[in-house]
Amino acid sequence: MKECIDCGKECSGERCMECFKKTKIFCFDGLEFASKKELDIIIKQKIKLAPKNIEFVDELLLRIVNNLHPVWKNSSLKCKKFKFLTWEKQIGDFAYARDIYRGNFLVVGFFQDEEMSFWEPVTLYPHKKENQSVKHKLNLILREEWSRSARKRDDKTICENCKKHHSFVQLHHKNISFKEIAEKCIDLFTEKELETGIVLDRKNHPAVLKMNELHLNVKYKWLCPKCHKEEHKNGY
Length: 236
Hints:
By secondary structure, this protein is an alpha+beta fold. The chain has three domains: 1-26; 35-128, no CATH class; 134-233, no CATH class. It is 36% helix and 16% strand. It has helices at residues 17-24, 36-49, 59-68, 97-101, 134-149, 178-185, 191-196, 206-214, 225-233; strands at residues 2-3, 10-11, 26-28, 31-33, 78-85, 106-112, 117-121, 170-173, 220-223. Strands 5-6-7 form a three-stranded antiparallel sheet, with helices on one face. A two-stranded antiparallel sheet has the order 1-2. Helix 6 (178-185) packs antiparallel against helix 8. The longest helix has 16 residues, at 134-149. The protein is globular and about 65 Å long. The model has no long low-confidence stretch (mean pLDDT 85).
């Protein structure tokens, strides 16, 4: 038998079961959960019961976003309420999400401080994205803006590699990756945007305009998820 490295009790592994469970405990903002998995289960249940297409407030979800999200936890802007938008209500500034989420609802939060307020898409699982940087968020903003103007699939669209019809074909960059394009645009964000990840006037932003310009010479093809994954193994 070995000794538990934490409490010294005899056990068969590195830690006894009691001490092992303690290593899984997840705490934030004065709250304690047995593990991140337990928190995920609670979030999933709240999502299931939450109203759709109307504003609502959930104190736990607000604390999750405001205290765990890598961007918002360090910002003066705080989430005040939510909307879960169904496909039919993903319109206006959020119309791009229709083709990205393909029927699933979109979570948007209302963020506010003393100077500004706006609705912004937000994840309810920020603890799964702890290592994502502000640069990653800015890349997502660029991708969202590209999605607004990108070619849209229709019912007749097939995968151009395997020639099969698939409900979730994706538009793939052939001659240059989106990542390469984004890297050429990232320096056009302001110092404050690079620090906070918050971009208000997206449509006319120099980084977005540069991205749109670079996309003029991009060649595309429609791929099913399997073929798309194979293409990325080859570099793009």
